[in-house]
UniProtKB/TrEMBL annotation:
GO biological process per UniProt: response to toxic substance
Keywords, comma-separated and alphabetical: Cell membrane, Lipoprotein, Membrane, Palmitate, Signal
Protein name per its UniProtKB record: Entericidin EcnA/B family protein
Taxonomy of the source species: Bacteria, Pseudomonadati, Pseudomonadota, Alphaproteobacteria, Sphingomonadales
CC annotations in GO: membrane
Length: 44
């Protein structure tokens, strides 16, 4: 369990460090949401 939590923490840090600002993070999250929504629409 600790190993999984550690890997999740590292992945989160890499994702956050990829976007330098809160605005950039918002764009990243929005893009991920659009991708999920598109995949859901394709599955219908």
């Amino acid at each position: 369990m600790r190993k999984i939590a550690g890997l999740a923490f590292l992945a989160t840090m890499f994702m956050v460090s990829a976007c330098n600002t809160v605005e950039g993070m918002g764009k990243d999250v929005s893009s991920a949401g659009d991708t999920v929504a598109g995949t859901a629409n394709d599955a219908k």
